Amino acid sequence: MREKLYPLFEQVFGISPNLMTDLSDKGLWNNEYMPYSFFDGEQAIANVSAFPLPMMINGASIHCIGIQSVMTHPDYRRKGLMKALFQKMLDDADQTYEGSILYTSSPELYIPFGFKTVNQYSFKMDFAHTTIASSSSLRKLKPLTNPADLEILNKIAQHSKILSTTFFPIRYLNCLYFNFYNPAIYENLYLIEELDTILVFEVNNGILHLYDVMGEMIPPIEQLCSFIPYEFTSIEYYFHPEAFPSPNLRPIECEAQTKLMVRGNILVENELFMMPVTCEF
User: In terms of DSSP H, where are the helices of the chain?
Assistant: First the structure.
């Protein structure tokens, strides 16, 4: 079934079938992926897919789905195909799940289905890091080409502590797998062997951009930074920094073209947070 969707991925999103095949061949495809599709003969012409995305929101575990792969072949648009598939998927999901989450650059398409846009915030603070680590156990991970690195990542990520009880995915390894094909994520995957902790970060213009931290125990930010062999004067967290409390944190509203939307029992109106970029889908 999934292979029949590959041409539609390429036609709508420009995603090469070779990428999808590689994802599947490496065993990284989400086996909980639930596609709803229309076909014209053997050709997939419209699709919307969902997958379980359990979330921790305001201290409670919420059974959510993530919605992705909303696509219609150009020759079959304006026929109501997406609307029919989307409504069917939501009707089914409402019987089992408490909420739905999606990303889109066209929020107006999903408001009629009960979705609302949620503003996201990164968090920044001053932090002078001038000591250059000379014998750091920090090293890059290459899970797409090194099976041992993939095994290490799987082991750590599957038992990783949730970074925030305000808004954070409980289980998102399959989202991370797909983001391996995003160089902004893949080229910034690091392992601190001594701490058995994975960092996703980069340092630009004196700022440590921290995208994710994975580990069974989350060390203090000072200890994590001691392994980073680059100088910086501030840290920007791209997730709610509950695990790294500081009175000096200041929120920065994100102005990305792609918006986060939620539906159902997801009460976040008065909260400032960001879905980690490693979980974007």
Answer: 6-13, 17-25, 81-93, 147-158, 173-179, 183-186, 221-225
Radius of gyration of the chain (CA): 20
Contact 263, 113 (CB under 8 A): yes
Q: Residue 186 pLDDT > 80, yes or no?
A: yes
Regarding the domain delimited by 122-253, which CATH topology (the fold level of the hierarchy) does it fall under? Aminopeptidase (3.40.630)
Cα–Cα distance, 64 to 93 (Å, whole number): 9
Q: What is the pTM of this model?
A: 0.92
Tokens linked to 204: 């630009």
The pLDDT score that the predictor gives to residue 134 is 60
Round to whole Å and give the CA distance between 168 and 184: 20
Distances (CA, A) of 233 to 165, 180, 199, 203, 236: 28, 28, 18, 10, 10
Domain spans of the chain, in order of start: 2-115+255-265, 122-253
Same fold, 2-115+255-265 and 122-253: yes
Q: Average of pLDDT values for 74-80?
A: 96
| Alpha carbon distance 8, 15 (integer Å) | 9
The third-level CATH classification (topology) of the domain covering 2-115+255-265 is Aminopeptidase (3.40.630)
| Mean pLDDT, residues 84-104 taken together | 97
Contact 251, 272 (CB under 8 A): yes
Residue 154 CA: distances (Å) to CA of 74, 159, 180, 196:
38, 9, 13, 12
